[in-house]
Amino acid sequence: MLAERCEGNLLAAQQEIDKLALLLPRGARAGAAEVAASSAESARYDVFQLGEAVRNADAARALRIIGGLQAEGTEPPLVLWALLRELRSLQPGERARAPVARLIARAARADRLAKHLQSGGDAWDELMLLAVELTGLRTLPLLRVGRSLSAQSGA
Known about the structure:
The structure is a single chain. The protein is mostly helical. It has two domains: 2-38, no CATH class; 47-134. Helices cover 59% and strands 0% of the residues. Helix 6 runs parallel beside helix 8. The chain is elongated and about 60 Å long. 25% of the residues are buried.
């Protein structure tokens, strides 16, 4: 748990261990409850770690990294660049884990939302969906540009 909360930030991990040593009696063991109560989310991520998570089909880690990048103030186009880099890195003849046309459409929607050229969604949500689809998991269907949500749902 501590490793996950401090991923990429060794100084924070050492500080959390030191804090636990001060809080607990000498010789006591720290369990999950003590770690959860005393530690903060200190993980630091970069877009290259996101690419690695996508390559390894680790959707949960990819989402954690995107959440961390968003919290740190990373701009959505940089995250999109990293995800497209993974899509472009497919070797000739290698199949994507999801249909390439769908991935490109999802990326285009994320780009338009990030640049405020389209409304009706959030760029970060779209980036998360793209990352998950790049790992091979199915997500929500794409909304077609120019159609309202009520038209999409058949209402």
